[in-house]
């Protein structure tokens, strides 16, 4: 970390509480913190350029907070395009994703993490919430730390094995992922949080994450929230991720999954529910009451036919004051680590589905992709907006690109016109990690080469390439 001046920036989207847009400003970064934001001329007078270790020119640039991805699977990244695209959520998870994850060994996982983070940085993401490692939390933590990225990861655990183990679920995966009891799982989660939280000067955090839904007992859902609270971290898991899961819950327990979480006291402000696409009005009230966060993954609802446009109640959640953030999810679930796509989608999906132009404006889509994500990650005291005292996590769009030429309202242009490949520079924790689209912390060509090698090896090993895998499932019915 060094002192950095970003001078003569045309436009800054601060994403402060008033969505203030600044023009012709300079930003002084000392260490990893924003020390001053002021008019370009005043900063030029007060701070000689020679005082800085690095100066970045902000002419023809729009600077905004880095994007925060609040639901991701780093370990899934080498599976791009491997699964068919006619799978609903449950067969996707049980027949394809589990066998795939079974085959991700430590080496493949390291290259998967590098490849995913490379894509994130190149498309404007500066912070992620990852579901957790398939092998060893240490691998994810240390690999992510080396890239200069900010993020939260975890151990990932479950405790309810299906009655019969389906084909291609390897013994190693079952042993690593499924604990005999909730207490055993919680012990492993506690150990990983204690060991890895606040790593790399607190750039990498570790949470008590579980898989959620059918593979986790009520005790584990509640226990993860309690453990997270006790350790001062969060927990995240998948829930109400499809109408089939919800119908199964209704049939077995006489209530929907979020009603059930409420009943067992598992909801709380340190819980991020991924998807929550099939949800009742009464459940929205429960989430609001407990300040529980929701990570909406537009790309996944598109590919896995979850029905967000049809049955999703994200606008109602926002009206109820719930923090709804955005996530890219895993590469086989959605196909992309590009948060700009999620931001663009959420700004149009509900306008169209409800035939109501007042649904989720561009300004709110930007908040969902930045400050609301930071809030979900319990990190909004330090990131998510461009304000003095916060960590310096920015991206800078090149407004000389064709997508920006000409443009009027910068908030609209950022959401509806910009392309994530217009992100020219990225700064994370005060360090320039991408300059002129060159990621300085990573060897892009080597990562792509190794990712291809390990993607092929893992796919072969998984049995998914030529296997006759069913596209329906009755597991956990
Ligand atoms: Zn997921």
Automatic annotation (TrEMBL):
Ranges for domain Amidohydrolase-related? 63-433
Q: Which GO terms describe its molecular function?
A: hydrolase activity, acting on carbon-nitrogen (but not peptide) bonds
What UniProt keywords are attached to this protein's entry? Hydrolase
User: Would the keyword Hydrolase turn up in this protein's UniProt record?
Assistant: yes
SUPFAM superfamilies per record = Composite domain of metallo-dependent hydrolases, Metallo-dependent hydrolases
Q: Which PANTHER family match?
A: AMIDOHYDROLASE-RELATED DOMAIN-CONTAINING PROTEIN (PTHR43794:SF11), AMINOHYDROLASE SSNA-RELATED (PTHR43794)
- Report the protein name in the record: Amidohydrolase
């Amino acid at each position: 970390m060094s002192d950095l001046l970003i001078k003569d920036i045309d436009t800054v989207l601060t994403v402060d509480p008033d969505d203030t847009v600044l023009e012709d400003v300079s930003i002084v970064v000392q260490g990893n913190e924003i020390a001053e934001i002021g008019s370009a001329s005043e900063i030029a007078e007060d701070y000689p350029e020679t005082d800085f270790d690095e100066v970045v020119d902000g002419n023809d640039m729009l600077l905004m907070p880095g994007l925060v991805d609040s639901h991701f699977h780093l370990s899934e990244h080498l599976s791009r395009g491997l699964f068919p695209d006619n799978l609903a959520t449950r067969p996707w998870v049980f027949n394809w994703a589990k066998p795939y994850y079974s085959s991700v060994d430590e080496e493949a996982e390291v290259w998967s993490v590098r490849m995913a983070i490379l894509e994130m940085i190149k498309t404007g993401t500066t912070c992620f919430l990852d579901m957790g490692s398939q092998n060893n939390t240490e691998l994810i933590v240390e690999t992510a730390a080396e890239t200069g990225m900010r993020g939260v990861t975890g151990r990932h655990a479950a405790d309810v094995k299906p009655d019969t183990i389906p084909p291609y679920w390897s013994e190693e995966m079952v042993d690593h992922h499924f604990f005999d009891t909730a207490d055993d799982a919680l012990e492993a989660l506690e150990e990983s949080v204690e060991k890895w939280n606040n790593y790399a000067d607190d750039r990498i955090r570790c949470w008590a994450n579980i898989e959620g839904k059918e593979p986790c007992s009520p005790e584990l859902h509640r226990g993860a929230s309690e453990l997270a609270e006790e350790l001062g971290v969060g927990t995240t898991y998948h829930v109400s991720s499809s109408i089939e899961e919800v119908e199964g819950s209704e049939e077995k327990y006489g209530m929907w999954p979020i009603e059930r979480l409420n009943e067992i006291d598992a909801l709380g402000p340190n819980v991020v529910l991924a998807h929550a696409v099939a949800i009742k009005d009464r459940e929205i009230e429960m989430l609001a009451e407990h300040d529980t966060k929701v990570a909406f993954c537009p790309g996944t609802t598109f590919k896995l036919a979850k029905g967000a446009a049809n049955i999703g109640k994200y606008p109602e959640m926002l009206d109820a004051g719930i923090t709804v953030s955005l996530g890219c999810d895993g590469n086989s679930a959605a196909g992309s680590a590009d948060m700009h796509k999620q931001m663009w989608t959420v700004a149009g999906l509900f306008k169209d589905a409800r035939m109501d132009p007042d649904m989720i404006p561009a300004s709110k889509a930007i908040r969902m992709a930045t400050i609301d994500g930071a809030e979900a990650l319990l990190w909004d005291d330090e990131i998510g907006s461009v304000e003095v005292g916060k960590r310096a996590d920015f991206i800078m769009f090149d407004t000389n690109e064709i997508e920006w030429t000409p443009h009027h309202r910068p908030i609209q242009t950022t959401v509806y016109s910009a392309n994530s490949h217009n992100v020219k520079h990225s700064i994370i924790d005060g360090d320039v990690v991408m300059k002129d689209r060159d990621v300085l912390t990573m060897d892009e060509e080597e990562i792509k080469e190794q990712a291809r090698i390990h993607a092929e090896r893992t796919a072969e090993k998984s049995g998914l390439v030529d296997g006759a895998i069913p596209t329906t499932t009755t597991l956990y019915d």
